[in-house]
Amino acid sequence: MVLKRLKGADILFYLVITYVMVAGSWWSYLLYIKNSDALNAKKEVLWLQMKEQGITDRQVYLESAEYTRLIEQYGRQKWMIFGESSVLLILIVLGIWRIAKSRQKELALAEQQRNFLLSITHELKSPIAVIKLTLDTFNKRTLTAEQSKMLTTNALADTDRLNKLVEDLLLAARVDGGYQYTFESLDLGLLLQKCIKIAAPKYSGTIEFNNNVGDATLNRGDQTTLSSVFLNIIENAIKYAPNTSKIIISLMQNKENTYCVEISDFGPGISKLERENIFEKFYRIGNEDTRKTKGTGLGLYIVKQIVKAHKGNVSIKSNQPTGSIFTISLPKA
């Protein structure tokens, strides 16, 4: 949750807005009073004029055309004051609402960018530190074959992590700046199997794949970016799901001639409020100062942009009893 801290400029702005609203209401009230006073004065003048003409019957005065015109004229002015004051007040309220909403978005974006900088710094420093430590160890100590293998394996894992981070950053920049997709016919089931094969060694639980379509030929798909989509979501499930649980991937085809890929996990799940924001750029659940899970907040943003480029849709809902279900819909043709 982004904390809305009012700075000096914000306080001054709201003070000015409050002054304008109070001043506008006050001047509207004064105009109404002046209008009423002017009407009463005109009525007295008209009554005196009619007396001079010899008309002393009050009822005749009240039913005269001059009195009726006078009442109608000042009645229109009264409603004009009410109408213009109401419109002005509504416009001010709408303006405040729009500015406050824009300010809230700016604060949220600033917080997300701050979180991104903190996370990217951590994500870069950690593997670099591990690789440097490994090289220093090789340089300063004589190691056994088993020790060398262990250190090399760890260094390679961190190198892969660093490489994926750089690829995510480059891909995020490309999808924002007009990525040139290579659309071709591909087998969606085969592509999912390849992604599962890549992700499975990272997970001690079970990844189950259910192909309910058989020959799932996607006539217009970019293999490289779609692989990134599925791997991002599968690796997210691996990151948050318990090691003993199951991740279920289902490939289906609905009546709208669209392929649907559902990736279900049994992790802690995502709250309804967070679900509305997780596809935004740099957005991550929680605060970067206290978060323990790794990431940059770019993965799901990349997923959404790639699926959108394929004329598809990505959504999320709760799984039962716990967890999340990501649904990627891709048009067959």
Task: Compute the separation of the termini in Å.
Answer: 41 Å
Q: What is the tally of helical segments?
A: 8
Residue-averaged pLDDT: 81
Question: What order do the SSEs take from the amino end to the carboxyl end, as H and E?
Answer: HHHHEHEEHEEHHEE
Main-sheet strand order equals: 2-4-5-7-6
Protein structure class: alpha+beta
Helix content: 55-70%
Low-confidence stretches: 1-6
Strand content: 5-15%
**Rg over CA atoms:** 34 Å
How many strands? 7
Shape: elongated
User: Biggest β-sheet, characterized?
Assistant: 5 strands, mixed
Please, could you describe this protein's structure?
This protein is of the alpha+beta class and 333 residues long. It contains 8 helices and 7 strands; from the N terminus they run ααααβαββαββααββ. A 5-stranded mixed beta sheet has the order 2-4-5-7-6. A two-stranded antiparallel sheet has the order 1-3. The N terminus is likely disordered.
Task: Outline the fold blueprint.
Elements: H1 8-52, H2 58-62, H3 65-140, H4 145-176, E1 184-187, H5 188-199, E2 206-211, E3 217-221, H6 223-240, E4 246-253, E5 258-264, H7 272-275, H8 299-309, E6 313-318, E7 324-331
Parallel strand pairs: 2-4
Antiparallel strand pairs: 1-3, 4-5, 5-7, 6-7
Helix pairs in contact: 1-3, 3-4, 4-8, 5-6, 6-8
List its salient traits.
alpha+beta; two-stranded antiparallel sheet; elongated; five-stranded mixed sheet; 8 helices
Write a concise synopsis of the structure shown.
This protein has 333 residues and is of the alpha+beta class. It is 61% helix and 13% strand.
